Amino acid sequence: MTDQLPGLYVRDLRVSFDGFTAVDGVSLDVAPGDIRFLIGPNGAGKTTLVDAVTGLVRATGSVRFGDRELLGRPVHRISRLGVGRTFQTSTVFEELTVLQNLDIAAGARRGWATLLRRRHGIPDEVAEALEVIGLAGRADQLAGTLAHGQKQWLEIGMLLVQDARLLLLDEPVAGMSHEERDATGELLEQVSRDRTVVVIEHDMDFLRRFARTVTVLHAGRVLSEGSVAQVQADPRVQEVYLGHPVDAGPTPLEA
Amino acid sequence: MTTVARDSRTVVDPAPPPAKPAAGPSRHRFRAVAGFAFGAALLFAVAPLVLSDFRLSLLAKYLCVAMVAIGIGLAWGRGGMLALGQGVFFGLGGYAMAMHLKLADAGPGNMPDFMLLYGQLDELPLWWRPFASPWFALPATVLLPMAVAFVLGSLVFRRRVRGAYFAILSQALAAAMVILLIGQQGTTGGTNGLTDIQGFFGYDLDDPVNQRMVYFIIAGTLLALLALARHLMQCRYGELLVAVRDGEERVRFLGYDPATVKLVAYVVAAGMAGLAGALFVPAVGIISPALIGIVPSIEFVIGVAVGGRATLLGPVLGAVAVAWARTALSERFPGGWTYLQGLLFVVVVAFLPGGLASLIGLARRGDGERWFGRLRRTRRTEGQAS
Fold first, then answer.
1. Which parts of chain A sit beneath pLDDT 70?
2. Alpha-carbon distance values, B271 to B92, B132, B259, B276, B278 (Å)
3. How far apart are the C-alpha atoms of A119 and B28, rounded to whole Å?
4. Which of A75, A100, A131 sits opposite B5 (nearest CB)?
5. What angle separates helix A98-105 from helix B236-246, to the nearest 10 degrees?
6. Among the four residues A47, A111, A113, A115, which has the most C-beta atoms within 10 Å?
7. Which residues of chain A are within 8 Å of residue B6 when distances are taken between CB atoms?
8. Which residues in chain B are closer than 8 Å to A182, comparing Cβ atoms?
């Protein structure tokens, strides 16, 4: 906790499936405490990049989190190094309560002696996460009965109690109402105080409000990188989104 | 800190569902103790008074099947592993016990009767010898199945074999074991199995009093296994097991190795099946390939499905009910039972995936109307579609 917050350093990352190259030599750095948005058209390799970082697919190159190399480790080991992720579809354990979901997320480092005992009361980190994600009043509710937005917050809460130092979120606000998006954005700002956050997102309004830096991927490569304004002004980005360079009118990021 | 919390309350309008009267831990415990006391009274007082010796020995047999069912409930209902080959572990436990009892019947230094009968061997095979000692044979009835399950599970779960593939694999194992046993007639008794077991640690099994004692041992063991299963389901491990069942990948991303989580449930289930097999032998007096092959393995699962696989008591009641129905109906309609059993399985899987136990849950919540309402609605929409 007290040690320096690590950043994410990706070098020349390549992922191929049966000859198709989904990620084609991506290099990018995410500074500690950043909120980095990954955007790009469908098939740009955003989710595959996250899959490679979290060990779900094989990749070549190098992915370091702080000074630790992640590539080549199994999924659960990478997770224990402090890398947490969510998926496009919510994947909370619907048959378990909110409290049980969080308790399981908090418990990967528990020994068998603890696992084979019953939970008594609410662990501190779980109680804290319940407050942060605003579900304290629903701790005993089955996760399957939560509203869509609440499920996404529960996912983020699970990453918090898991003590993930790097959060990789795949379209966290898809399907959310405006108010829910704002709440989610504020949640991200709050958790980024002592964590590094990477968000895959299509929602440009959400991006403009909450992104600190942006990386645009296209066809498996980094097309552009920088602040929201810098990326917005990049003619290559406009070309990818509109099919031709534009010198006037609204850019896709403003549309 | 609290901004999000406040927002979420204004953002999300649906109120939390009507709060159920929260049963505190003490009430839970009271209900459990009361339940166990009731079960013990039923098994230890009512059943021996009401049932004839013959029926009581049948019940002893059913309770052995119920022990296997508890394990399947854990592995399949809670862990999502459709263990279609529990006969293997039942058989390992049964054969380990039967080998010891056969050797004890024969007396020290002698060979079991069937070996003399087939007359191929001059002396006891090497791998039979340790079973002469109860100190080896009794632990082996449980540890041997657990060891086999551990090796198999380690290989299978790490390679992420699951679902139907796991079910088929476990069933193939049951078939392989039967073939092995039948092929080695000289040392295993072949198709006949190990039969005509006379004594149980010095007690004559023909004596009804001793049969009754065996019944009490079985009933006590069943209650102990129920208590163990209840604890495993309610401790943190039990919650984790359900999480693995519903989202194995997600659990992996939380930093657990799901293979280990599943392995524990599978090995425990194998140990329960082994113990059941071991106690089946003195209750019935025989263990044979026909009792542990594919068909009995499937029948174990049917009982669990009918009762309700994810509950604690469902598998036990389902297993006893199906085994009882089988006996009762076979007495009257020989041959008809197979069809009825198949029908029962289809009906439960298609219309009541949670088993009969889910009916109780529905009734308690007063959801019966809703459930039937849904059926009616389904029918109506189907009518509109056609």
1. 1-3, 242-255
2. 10, 21, 18, 9, 11
3. 14
4. A131
5. 100
6. A47
7. 134
8. 7
CA A56 to the chain's CA centroid = 14
- Token duo for residue A100: 């049980």
Total beta-carbon pairs less than 8 A apart between chain A and chain B: 128
Interface test with A, best of B74, B254, B268, B358 (most A CBs within 10 A): B254
Contact A199, A22 (CB under 8 A): no
The sheet with strand A196-200 has its strands ordered as: A83-85, A166-170, A196-200, A35-39, A213-218, A221-226
Residues of B in contact with A155 (CB under 8 A): none
Strand-pair partners of A85 = A168
Ramachandran category for residue B57: left, alpha or beta (phi over 0 → left; psi -120 to 50 → alpha): alpha
Kindly list the residues from chain B whose CB atom is less than 8 angstroms away from the CB atom of residue A117: 235-236
Backbone φ and ψ for A198, nearest 5 degrees, come out as -120, 130
Query: What is the Cα–Cα distance from A112 to A115, expressed in whole angstroms?
Result: 5
pLDDT tens readout for residues B65-82: 999 999 999 999 999 999
User: What percent of chain B has pLDDT above 70?
Assistant: 87
Residues of B at the A interface, defined by Cβ within 8 angstroms = 1-12, 14, 16-17, 22, 231-232, 234-237, 239-240, 242-243, 246-247, 249-257
**Residue in A87, A141, A162 closest to B254 by CB:** A162
DSSP count for chain A of H helices, then E strands: 10, 10
CB-based contact B149:B266 (threshold 8 Å): yes
What's the pLDDT tens digit per position in A4-22?
A: 788 999 999 999 988 889 9
Query: Which of B232, B237, B255 faces A162 most closely, judged by CB atoms?
Result: B255
Considering only B56-60, B269-273, B372-376, which range has the smallest mean pLDDT? B372-376
Do B104 and B157 contact (CB within 8 A), yes or no? no
pLDDT of B366 > 70? The answer is no
CB atoms within 10 A of CB A120: 7
Residues in chain A closer than 8 A to B12 (CB atoms): 147, 149-150, 180
pLDDT tens sequence across B127-159: 999 999 999 999 999 999 999 999 999 999 988
| Radius of gyration of chain A measured on its C-alpha atoms | 19
* Contact (CB, 8 A) for A250 and A232: no
DSSP SS3 for B377: helix
Which among B235, B250, B257 has CB closest to A116?
A: B235
